[in-house]
Amino acid sequence: MTALELRNIRKSYGEELVISDFNLTLERHQVKVLIGASGSGKSTLLRCINLLEEIDDGQILLDGEDISAVDVNADKVRASIGSVFQAFNLFPHLTVLENITLAPRLVHGTEKGQAEFDAMELLERFGLSEKALQYPDLLSGGQQQRVAILRAIICKPKLLLLDEVTSALDPVLIAEVLSLISELKGDGMTMLIATHEMGFAKKVADEVLFLKNGQVLEAGTPLQMLEDPQHLALKNFLFALEQAGRL
Ligand SMILES: Nc1ncnc2c1ncn2[C@@H]1O[C@H](COP(=O)(O)OP(=O)(O)O)[C@@H](O)[C@H]1O
Ligand SMILES: [Mg+2]
């Protein structure tokens, strides 16, 4: 079953066409990775999908429902999509447990006790239960980002969007965040991920899409993309990643 379908998406900021002719199909349990130079449109695309940005043309279907229709309840749609971005956006005045249980309680009406039980179960699974009552600024960046991901999945979203969630972290912390995401892949989570971590993409991605100027210039399995890139722009991009030690 198809979880997400993008049909001919177009998005401009003023005169600048940022996304054009964009088509994508993500089956349930599939993981696709978006790569591309800074400014190629990865974040904009993800922000359009969770309705933080309005598209100018095209359709976005989530589980077959057109969420880009004018009469759609955007809050309801956002409640069924988990999103995590580069900057750790945990609420600093709430504990880890309060951060994670906020959406279940306020958006989904889950009872406090049940929400806390579910949250503790997740925290334990990922080795963070000791942090439950701490405030985010006492945690490492990697721990904060893992909490942000748990917060995004506690309500069992239909789709998880991850936008360069490791790019503000140093290598050891990157590894612990990527390993959590790999586990989610094992759970069958449907994900669309923008990342520069190609080693990681190789492990989890069913398909890698290389974006240039808001379009898919090339797409394929991670192996195809890494070992037999067709376009010069992709070759250059991979070379730059290699130079930066990220391949
Ligand atoms: N809110 C905005 N207003 C105007 N231009 C924007 C905005 N957000 C992104 N852009 C522009 O859209 C293009 C794509 O940006 P972005 O989606 O952030 O790319 P990426 O995530 O691949 O780096 C860039 O040229 C960027 O300057
Ligand atoms: Mg971006």
Describe the structure.
With 247 residues, the protein is α/β, with parallel strands linked by helices. It has one domain: P-loop containing nucleotide triphosphate hydrolases (Rossmann fold, 3-Layer(aba) Sandwich), CATH 3.40.50. 38% of the residues lie in helices and 25% in strands. The protein contains nine helices and ten strands. The protein has a six-stranded mixed β-sheet, with helices on both faces. A four-stranded antiparallel β-sheet has the order 2-1-4-5, covered by helices on one side. The chain is globular and about 55 Å long. The two termini are 32 Å apart. The site of magnesium ion has 4 residues, from helix 1.
Write the layout of secondary structure elements.
Blueprint: E1 2-13, E2 16-27, E3 31-35, H1 42-49, E4 57-62, E5 65-66, H2 74-79, E6 81-84, H3 96-106, H4 112-125, H5 141-153, E7 159-163, H6 171-187, E8 191-194, H7 198-204, E9 207-212, E10 215-220, H8 222-227, H9 232-243
Parallel strand pairs: 3-8, 3-9, 6-7, 7-8
Antiparallel strand pairs: 1-2, 1-4, 4-5, 9-10
The protein binds adenosine-5'-diphosphate (ADP) and magnesium ion.
Main sheet? 6 strands, mixed
What's the name of the CATH homologous superfamily?
Answer: P-loop containing nucleotide triphosphate hydrolases
Low-confidence stretches: none
Please provide the count of β strands: 10
Taken together, the total number of domains comes to: 1
Approximately what portion of the residues adopt beta-strand conformation? 25-35%
Number of helices: 9
CATH class: Alpha Beta
Overall 3D shape: globular
CATH architecture: 3-Layer(aba) Sandwich
